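P.,

For your records, the input lines for the assembly:
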Amino acid sequence: MSLYSLVVDAAARTPRALAVHDLVTGLDYGTLDARADAYLAALRGRGVRPGDRVLVWTDKTTEAVAVAQAVLRCGAVHVPVPRSNPRERVARIAADARPALIVTDHDDRVPGTVCVPCADLVREAEPRRETEPRRETEPPRMTGPRPEAEPSRETEPRPQTEPPRQPEPRSKVASGPATAHHPVRLSDPAYILYTSGSTGTPKGVCLSHGNALAFVDWACRELALTAADRLANHAAFGFDLSVLDLYGAFRAGASVHLVGETLAQAAGPLVDFLLERRITVWYSVPSALVLMAEYGELLERGPGALRTCVFAGEPFPLKRLQDLRRAWPGVRMLNWYGPTETNVCTSYEVTAADLARTTPVPIGSPAAGDRVWLADDGEILVSGPTVMLGYWGGEPQAGPYRTGDLGRYDAGGLLEYRGRADDMAKIRGYRIEPAEVAGVLVAHEAVRDAAVLVVGTGPDARLQAFVVPETGRTPGLVELRRHCAAFLPPYMTVDAVHVVDGFPRTPNGKVDRAALGGLVARGVRA
Amino acid sequence: MTDLERAALLDQLLRYVREELETGLPADQITPGSPLLETGVLDSVRTARLLAHIRTAHDVRVPPVHMTGEHFRTLETITDLILLLRSRAASL
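Structure tokens returned:
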């Protein structure tokens, strides 16, 4: 069993069922499977070996999904990085992950690395089709897209007018050396998700095939996913929410509908997307749903075909959640919790009973086979099958993972989220280490010192920067935003800049962040 | 579509973004060609508000398939998108 076998198995069962659809193109399982094998051959041709990392810096497309499958089939480690990350940040990630290859779908290049566009890999895979003798007993396996699947504008899974192909023994299909799937163990690394790092550099959370499958298996049962489901993929590929959308769909033989990075920011069109694609399972941060309700008439226009709505990544503002629950009594709603390091480790089902509550909904009880408990100081600890292997380049994770989140139990014994033990913050579900942003600001020539904090919650959260300028300089907001944009993903850019002479300090000399927050409240601005 | 129409539309969008979108940026720093992502003009809240404005003031709904980085790079590209969507609606 491996993470890549989900697509292989679904392709054997239902080759004509829709697997993945981006904004323009859809691939059925048979085509996705063949395409993954074509990329696999091309990656091998490029010298990618088991254990290598392959960084995939692309928009959210069916091709990027096929490349990811190829990376896993190669026994290599998938490192997805959202397209919106600027070159400098990708360079930092690459410096840590040391990928054999960076696969792109654009012209940007990272100096000192091998960057290859998807299109080149497709071309490199094609000669193989001509030169490699196909065994007579094998059904035709196309390395290119099926004519009827591209450019497929359909949003429909094709009706199965012909009986599914007989499942073929894997050994036969993968008999060619170029496309033989590398056998992996559950403990082998499958992917690395880079998240904001408190030391100023992104840190890579490394998860195994077994980590991912433990979560996906649990989630498929919990959500009762079937081949008839249509999952939306709102989160960027570099975020762990994507793991459910993609691999949950693949395990169930369902379809996943990719929301491009720009569409993901557009509340109104997102509601159109939900309805037009007849999405049955939605998973996103609460902020996305709040904005869709506020700007896209989500409550009035929905739920369409939606049967389950899952949210995670930040607390759902209670009144907004109750509005949603009231508007859609027939939709199952789940509040999930878990840092990238553990994927989902607790779950709470929101029901009509929560309409009467006056405090935020709990994060619930342990999920996915994990054990979750509180340390004496209230920190949430997690151990179990979904806990990461470790940070890439660091020591293997030993013992329970300390989340840095604070919790407590409610009267019914369910876990509640209380906040952070450190400075880490969330903006619309995105995890941000203020120190990483401050580190980038200090690198600007006009900035001598910087401190960053998040003020506000939910959709109103804003990243506030306090800068001590170099003598004679007054860095403006535009200048610093452009500087941030060159080094950080868009969600980490500063919303406001406050120029100060120095920082308020606590008695032991640390920056007094509470006092800085007070400055924002009093309206000190650049 | 005339050049005059395009200029008027672009001007109107520019005024909206400068005066009502609460970008935190001084008006003179926002131009028709400013990169909207890099300057932090379009986050999820402001994207939602801008689209709502385009719908009410210009009677254009941007369909999901057109919500791409290419179309939303600058106010100029957004103007071209609105004109494209309008001409399509007119030819139906």
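Two observations worth noting. Chain B has one domain: 3-18+28-91. Chain B has a mean pLDDT of 92.

Regards
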